[in-house]
Amino acid sequence: MKSSLIIGSGIAGIASALRLKKAGYAVKIFEAANHPGGKLHAFHLGNFRFDMGPSLFTMPHLVDELFQLFNKNPSDYFVYTKKETLCNYFWEDGTRFSMPSGQGQFLQKASKQFDVEEKQLKKYLIRNKEKYDLTADLFLSKSLHTWKTYFSFKTVSSLVQAYKLHLNDTLNGVNKKYFNNRHLIQLFNRYATYNGSSPYKTPGIMSMIPHLEMFYGTYLPKGGMHQITKSLYKLALEQNIEFHFNESVDEIVIDGNYAKGIKTAKGLYTADIVVSNTDIFTAYSKLIKSDRKPKRILNQERSSSAVIFYWGVDKLFPELDLHNILFSDDYEEEFNSIFDKKTLHNDPTVYINITSKEVKSDAPNGCENWFIMVNAPGNFGQDWDTLIKELKQNVIHKINRVLNCKIENHIIEEEVLDPRKIELKTGSHLGSLYGTSSNSKFSAFLRHSNFSPDYKNLFFCGGSVHPGGGIPLCLLSAKIATDSIIAHD
Q: N or C: which end of the chain has fewer CB within 10 A?
């Protein structure tokens, strides 16, 4: 039986382990923390439960198929419900919009709310779908770093129609071509943050992201997002996948042009295959002791990071739902602050996620668990203590203005996660949430491949490599990496 070693038990690491196990490999996973899941974890503050990391769950079939590989019924492991409301949006001028999940409902409601013709909205959504249909097979299911990917009728057809992808426009530029309502433009600009980028820099192809959200919908697992990790971990144990917790990897062992294994404080482990689910910058800077490093990729701009406040709130807010956005009044300056000035904007966009809206046990009666995220620059040595103190006041003032309350009187529990801690806890360079940013039209092609171009038997998965960050793309990275392994057996 062939053997494999996986560094990191994030969702891409566990997914890779399951796929390799199904292909007949013996699998060992090495994790520096004392638990699986990476960012997809949870914790308690007093009587409140919080999901620590990703709060958006879409494309659930990508999780389901991991259970189906072993002829298991996914619902025997975890159950999720589809949200009828995608997100509640709030603006400083009092405008509010509750975005329905159904396209027909959205067209009717948004047309009336933002004074735009339904046919214009529909034209925009159709073009977004075209972008997805043209690129999904190329970008999301295959490696961009092998020639055979490009020698197919579907790929050639997509490249011929590349003019439809708006690669030479920014996302903001595309949205302004379709709409003149600033609220609607800002709503669609927001989707750049799904991969940690700026709508004023990322290419217009990113307008396909709202299609994904509308087509597949958004979901919440019963028990919260952490249930995804717990269920996949349970499946992995049933398949005799071996986990080594509290055992960080010090080195990927290279012999000539081959990856032969790993070293930890406990010794040397050898295997036929090594899969790294660590940040690609960290892998090359700390684990691979060779001078052969992809300098162009390692020098790329990183995605945004975040400051997250976890608040236990002793009040119910019926106007809020699972996902809520309180927009900055100067969106362009907010992203200029993040990417160019490397600081926090004094009027930040505030995202509030409240799982207790669906999972009642996540907060005591009459209370809510608020996961409040603000987009932030990476950790470049800023005075974070001062910045976070100022940010908290700005966030409180914004919530009070928009929701007409005094939220500071209702915060009874608090924890804070900032780019320094994200970098320390996850090994993500500069605390970036999605690896490299997508602030260029060639960003999809510039991500590191799912295999090493220099060392045989070394593969990569996770949010810092192709095809990108977020739960769905991490799962797809695992599939692309393991498909490459199996194809070369």
A: N
